[in-house]
Design a protein that fits this description.
- The chain has 187 residues and is an all-beta fold.
- The protein has one helix and 16 strands.
- The chain has three domains: 61 residues, SH3 type barrels (Roll); 60 residues, OB fold (Dihydrolipoamide Acetyltransferase, E2P) (Beta Barrel); 57 residues, Beta Barrel (OB fold (Dihydrolipoamide Acetyltransferase, E2P)).
- The strands form three sheets. A six-stranded antiparallel beta sheet has the order 1-6-2-3-4-5, with no helix packed on it. A five-stranded antiparallel beta sheet has the order 9-8-7-10-11. Strands 14-13-12-15-16 form a five-stranded antiparallel beta sheet, with no helix packed on it.
- Strand 10 and strand 11 form a beta hairpin.
- The longest helix is centred in the middle third of the chain and has 4 residues.
- The chain is elongated, with a radius of gyration of 22 Å.
- The N and C termini lie far apart (50 Å).
């Protein structure tokens, strides 16, 4: 247990029976009223964010956390397998927890996984990934209007809008924040 005054960004606490990640927090002292802590929390079960006020002396249960960088190995029937490259220990994570991150996972890619009391609860991708184009329509010769784009399918099945000059088997850099094309991998 810790007091609300000791709450910091990145801590994981138990709130309403579920683990919540502290996204942001501010200590407020309004005029002649009692001080309080305003915190923005994200429920690690359903990924919903909420704003919460705590009294500065309120006791909060802080959970034990561990962040590990793991290497993605393979997917088998909705279960994603990751390996710790130091201990060679294998960890299975459900497709439900992976969510949209599956669009950016290729074998041997590294991701950061947050464990709360030795249970994986959140996955953090790098800001961008390099993926190979598997399907793309040919650009029309002479169509040189600026910023013309076409859809391209990458190796994970994600469809991305890319410039006309991108061809099949090219590696492109994609933003994991919004799934947008950032450039060729060799740029």
């Amino acid at each position: 247990m810790t007091s609300a005054n000791n709450l910091r960004k990145g801590h994981v606490i138990k709130y309403q029976g579920h683990p919540h990640l502290v996204l942001d927090m501010h200590h407020r002292t309004p005029g002649n009223l009692r001080a309080f802590v305003q915190a923005k929390l994200r429920n690690l079960k359903n990924q919903r964010s909420t704003d919460v006020r705590f009294s500065t002396s309120e006791d909060i249960e802080k959970l034990t956390t561990d962040r590990q960088t793991l290497e993605f190995s393979y997917v088998d029937r909705g279960s994603y397998s990751f390996m710790n490259t130091e201990t060679f220990e294998s960890i299975e994570i459900s497709e439900e927890l992976i969510g949209n991150a599956k669009n950016y996972l290729v074998p041997n890619s590294e991701v950061e996984i947050l464990f709360v009391e030795n249970v994986p609860v959140d996955i953090t991708l790098p800001s961008s990934v390099v993926l190979k184009v598997t399907e793309s329509a040919e650009g029309i010769r002479g169509d040189t209007a600026s910023n013309v784009q076409k859809p391209a399918t990458v190796e994970t099945g994600l469809v991305v809008q890319v410039p006309l000059f991108i061809k099949v088997d090219e590696e492109i850099r994609i933003s994991t924040a919004d799934g947008s094309y950032m450039g060729r991998a060799k740029d």
